[in-house]
Design goal:
heterodimer; A: 180 residues; mainly alpha; Rna Polymerase Sigma Factor, Chain: A; two-stranded antiparallel sheet; 7 helices; 67% helix; B: 320 residues; alpha+beta; Jelly Rolls; Phage tail protein beta-alpha-beta fold; 13-stranded mixed sheet; 3-stranded mixed sheet; 8 helices
């Protein structure tokens, strides 16, 4: 399975894409529940995929496509949700929804306080993590390294990176972690 | 709607799938399992959505969390160990950085939205001109004037004050200024410092040997992700700071760089259909407020076609 693809050539990109296209679309449709939305995300996904540096050999193009598609899917769902909220009432004109909570887009003293409190909450949760776990989490989430890059960088296995990511996300989503 | 996410098992499963989907080696076979998990229970999707929302919230506050954790890390784990990317920075510099990025009680934060520019005047007579999508913190104390450029671009005009050095922190780097004018542009990958007047010093070195590297007027340097300094290139001062006059001036630059720069000023993005197109070169003077005109110019100059993609996004493709 350790086939290395060279996506330098356009036809190869196209071939790869068409191989995975059907699966990607089913994946997107199940969440978006709308043909047109799924097509839009798919198109954007393709453009993003082609944007990857041609000189980089991508070890797992399928995995990369799923990752891109999933990231775009999250954005798309969020955007749709805030558009809907905006249409539903003129009062909501300046409100976006984060975690189901309305957040004013215009800065407002209370809101700023609220967001500060939220950050403080997240920060204190992240600081409860072990330094290594936090380091892995930050490299992936904030430095934008892929799981594989994090693994190489920190000198641990890829599955260990995943375990750390799961541990960190449990913390953020307030689940007790018995594996600590 | 509020929902209590009481079912830890469900949450755990949702987290597992979220991490797998982002892992970079998710495949079609695994997808079948994922889809049937998602279909099995209406609530599974709600849990997954919750995980995604929290993931996105982190994105929104990325800079603040990143900065705070970074400063914290220097406190808690001073051993370099495998944090190669921290680089060899003097302990004293870490101290300066820490005071800059920690949530100090007296700092002011200034930001601009995408497409917005503004000038702030500091109490000492210095001024900072913020370009689009920029965030910085200002902290004026009796001993020091410090600015932390979190993201974006700013042009500084610093009033000299021998007793209060003016420091600018950009990522892991600290820049010391006496009385000068300079421009700093920070992207995720690198920071570009362009000095238009006077001298700017970049602090570097190890514990017992701090060196100041000087950058003279008319010179530009780039600090890369690994915190290394790359010397550059001739500098046409007027081009670098043309944004202050609402203009973008380019002399024979790559189309991909032109588009990256233009995209900073608008909510919608211009995307190249084919990455190879980015290798074309372009020159010109463009008004920041008029994206359509810039796109028209690119179409004409390089024989490309523009097509709207989704809402504000535009794709450029070969029009022959």
């Amino acid at each position: 399975m350790a086939k290395i693809y060279n996506i330098k050539r356009d036809d190869e990109v196209n071939r790869l894409y068409h191989e995975v296209k059907g699966d990607l679309k089913r994946f997107l449709l199940q969440r978006l529940k709308n043909e047109q939305d799924a097509e839009d995300v798919l198109q954007e996904c393709f453009i993003k995929f082609r944007g990857y540096k041609p000189e980089e050999n991508i070890a797992n193009p399928e995995g990369l496509l799923f990752k891109i598609a999933y990231t775009l899917l999250i954005d798309s769902i969020r955007k749709k949700k805030s558009d809907l909220a905006r249409e539903s009432s003129w009062v909501n004109e300046n409100i976006t929804y984060l975690s189901g909570e309305p957040i004013m887009e215009m800065p407002h003293a209370d809101r700023t306080l609220d967001s500060r409190r939220r950050i403080k909450g997240i920060l204190s949760l992240l600081q409860e993590l072990s330094p290594k776990c936090r380091h892995v989490f930050m490299l992936h989430k904030f430095e934008g390294l892929s799981h594989r890059q994090v693994a190489e960088h920190v000198g641990i296995s890829k599955s260990m990176v995943e375990k750390y990511m799961i541990r960190a996300l449990k913390k953020i989503n307030h689940i007790r972690d018995d594996n600590r | 709607m509020t929902m209590n996410f009481k079912d830890d098992k469900k949450m755990e499963r949702a987290i597992y799938w979220h991490v797998r989907l982002l892992s970079g080696d998710f495949g079609s076979q695994e997808m079948e399992k994922f889809l049937s998990w998602q279909q099995a229970d209406r609530e599974n999707e709600v849990y997954l959505h919750h995980v995604e929302e929290n993931w996105a919230v982190l994105e929104v506050h990325k800079d603040k969390i990143h900065d705070a954790l970074n400063s914290k890390k220097h406190h808690v784990v001073p051993t370099i160990g495998n944090m190669r990317w921290v680089g060899v920075v003097a302990a004293s510099l870490i101290m300066i950085m820490t005071t800059l990025v920690i949530f100090a009680p007296f700092f002011e934060k200034h930001t601009t939205a995408i497409g917005e520019q503004k000038i702030i005047y500091l109490a000492d007579g210095s001024s900072v001109f913020l370009n689009t999508n920029t965030a910085l913190k200002v902290d004026m104390s009796d001993k020091e004037r410090t600015i932390n450029l979190i993201k974006g671009e700013a042009y500084f005009q610093v009033t000299p004050d021998k007793h209060r050095p003016f420091m600018v922190a950009v990522g892991q780097r600290v820049i010391r200024v006496v009385g000068t004018k300079f421009n700093i542009y920070r992207t995720d990958n690198e920071t570009t410092l362009s000095v238009t007047e006077g001298i700017v010093a970049i602090l570097e070195g190890t514990d017992d040997d701090i060196i100041e590297q000087q950058v003279l007027a008319g010179k530009q340097i780039i600090i890369n992700q690994k915190n290394e300094i790359q010397k550059t290139i001739k500098l046409n001062l007027n081009n670098v700071t043309a944004w202050k006059e609402g203009q973008l001036v380019y002399e024979d630059i790559l189309l991909q760089d032109f588009i990256r720069d233009l995209n900073r000023y608008y909510v919608g993005k211009i995307i190249l259909q084919d990455k190879e197109l980015g290798k074309m070169r372009i020159s010109g003077v463009f008004q920041i407020g008029d994206r359509n005109k810039a796109i028209k110019a690119v179409e004409n100059l390089l024989n490309l076609k523009a097509m709207p993609l989704t809402s504000n996004n535009i794709v450029l493709y070969n029009g022959k």
